[in-house]
Amino acid sequence: MMKNILGFAGSNSSTSINVQLLKNLMDRLPSDYITKHIDVLDYSLPFYGEDIEKEQGVPENAEKFATEIAQNDALIITINEHNGSLSAYFKNLIDWTSRYKHQFLAGKKIFLAAASPGQGGASASLKYAKTAFSIFGGEVVETLSFPSFYDNFKNGIVVNPELEKEITSKINTFAQQTS
């Protein structure tokens, strides 16, 4: 049975290292998977506020984002880290989407990864997102913290043998969990 896998990075940067990591991860999926990559910038939203929601309702882009997720079997999400948490842009997208449909990740298996230029590998944002995604019904089946991105990733390729082995193992586990 074919599986539809949706991938997106939680970054609004045009030079996002997490977009690069996402492409690498999605390219590793079995050939019988149908993959789709979306750009979170296509779902621009005002900053969430109760008053805005009361006056204007939930913006259409939150519904579109939730619908895109619903149309797929599983997700690969790469996230960045700003000051030990998700970027404000991505957190806002998640906040609005959960206002449209609280369990917008229900039944979705998720491979959650984060890259950073530093040695921490965005581990704090990974921890936060794993907890948040479970609140919204998602099941994070694999996580990957990718540290020192510019040292370990060159021209679309993971050059660190230990990271390469870890990624291969985790993608295989994710593929087994979603087949």
From TrEMBL:
GO cellular component, one term: cytosol
Limits of the NADPH-dependent FMN reductase-like domain: 4-143
Xref: Gene3D superfamilies: 3.40.50.360
Pfam family, one: FMN_red
Signal peptide span: none
InterPro entries: Flavoprotein-like_sf, FMN_Rdtase-like_dom, NAD(P)H-dep_reductase
GO MF annotation list: FMN binding; oxidoreductase activity
Protein's name according to its UniProt entry: NAD(P)H-dependent oxidoreductase
Organism: Zunongwangia pacifica
